[in-house]
Amino acid sequence: MTEELKIDGPTQARPEDAHAQGVLSREAARPDGPLKVSGRAAYAAEYLPEGAAHGVLVRAPGRGKVRLANRAEVEAMQGVLCVLHDDRMVRNAAQGTANEAPVQGVEWAEYVGQPVALVVAETPEQASHAAARLRVEAGGSKGAVTPGEGEVTDEDVTTSETGDFEAAMREGAQTLDATYTTPSHVSAAMEPHAAIAEWKDGCLTLHSALQMLKFNRNEIADCVGVDPGNVRVLAPYVGGGFGSKLGISAEAVAAALAARDLGRPVRVVQTRRQVFEVNTRRSETRQRIRLAADRDGRLTGLGHDALASNLPGEDFAEPVLQASHFSYAAPNRRLRQSAERLFRPASGSVRAPGEAVGVTMFEIAMDELAESCGIDPVEFRLRNIPETDPERDVPFSSHMLAECLTEGSHRFGWADRPAATRQRQEGEWWIGTGMAAAFRVNLLMEAEARVRLSPEGVVVETDMTDIGTGTYSILTQIAAERLGHPPDRCEVRLGDTDFPPGSGAGGSVGAASTGTAVWLACTEIRRQLAEAMGCSEADLTLKDGRATCGNRSLDIAEVIGDGPLEGHGHLQPGKALKKVRQSTFGAHFAEVAVSDVTGEVRVRRLAGTYAAGRILNPRTARSQCHGGLTWGIGMALTEALEHDRRDGHAVNRDFAEYHLPVNADVPDLDVEFVEERDDWAGPMQAKGIGELSICGSGAAIINAIHHACGVRVRDLPATPDRVLAGLA
Ligand code: MOS
To answer: Separation of 527 CA from ligand 1 center, angstroms?
Structure first.
């Protein structure tokens, strides 16, 4: 039996509060933790079926028509089984959504580094040796690779206008007109992209490192030309994705095609360099931000004009303005987004697509305008919180920015801050503090799950993935809570398309969406138990394996009787987001030290106060926020994928040259959650937390640099050379 739910309106009931097991919203360890730390959790590349051959991707050295110059020679090399050069291979990673199919083709290379062949051999060594010998000729075709030089067509520009923005800019008591830039970023997940393909009776089994299995199965089926019903994708453990594994990448299709040709399993693992180049990057952005405020520091004009890039043929454009539409009140607004066509590696979703760079740069602009208005930056934001959605005539489902700002500044000790810049010095170090708000749109996505209750315990099944976020923990807690079992008697099985399709892990939707599907499946089982007990579901108390109803109390195993009870949950988003604006909110605070001698910036303190509805597990939620804050440090200070100016290829394509913050760069991070229930987020009243803390944390650091030493950085990252240039 399926319990269906469409979220069309608010849910005011708080049924979860009545549950007796008491495991939801508590700190809970990961059930998969011991497997991971002891190396027993098998990641994609660790599956090696009997008789597997090994493939290595070979890539184009230039842009243009592709020719393999010495294919026969390579095919004759020791151990080589085939050189696959098949136009069904994919050009770059897909986006992992229902309506964006991957772009295929190897006859023409659209960017330097595009995979155009797969060399398959008996051993990985033979395959990489032969792949290194394969001579690919491609090049000669010119194309813009530098931002500002690419083609922008009308259909790649979207504008929205409210009121009279230009008049607001002319008449503002204080105005700002500044241009900011961010560089390309990569997801840089630790686990490399990998695929092991095996065919049996016309059916493909693919072990791969992916985030959205129900879409990934369709993408693969479409690329190799089989029915999706004949494809099974498995990804029970994924070592980070951050968007780069939302859709299938080159190795998956290549492995599937080669395995079918050869009649044996084929394993393809991307090298670290390939991970940096053939998946998707976050586009560089150029953002012109114009703001006008009246004498009281209330925004009268808000303009955000963003430019991002992608390859021709790609639909994705970094949604830079996503939060600018609702973050602050201003009666006169102009938002404009353009996408230019550049022949760099494809761009796509990287953790918090849109807000990560959009909110961050907007929050720097807000700091600049607060300063020229002579208003404290926290107060400036408090004054500009909208009553309702400033562009659509709908209310917010809940709005917690003021609470986050107030509680966060109290916790950080913001009140002690001198208003002026360059007030504190310790030896060569200038010390300063800065803050920024956080916004991230909230979504629910369709999700299904199946739950079985037997005398042995509870089993949850969905194709949902856990990309390191804590899905195993949270789904365990939900099932345990709803069915009155201790967590160690609940088993969660994920990452297999043979299970009901969950939401997938992306866009911070996983815990709330797939969690609600599990919740619904449990509702269905609770109803069956209640019927057997002769009471209503609402009157049923389940705790520690016992069912209680009025003055009757039985072992759940007795109530179940013979067969296991089964429930199926199906969540659909519904019309809720047409009726309300829904977001998560937060406030970031940073203290930095800036060397007057070298321009080096050290982050001394970094704190975030967040509201994201009900927090299902504070430990895994906090861990997500630690990750996002660390990304904020990287975005502010070190991370930039550099492109060669001649041909656009990625230059710093490894962990030595693409600088991620490591332990020595990260201070103790302070994360707190503001108690919130969002009635429009379904029966759990929980929203997504995964990406919120990267939205603006980098701005708190940039604003702190300015407060410390007076240097305003508008081009990220704030590397020592840029800071030093300002100090001089
Ligand atoms: Mo996320 S960038 O939607 O995996």
So the answer is: 36
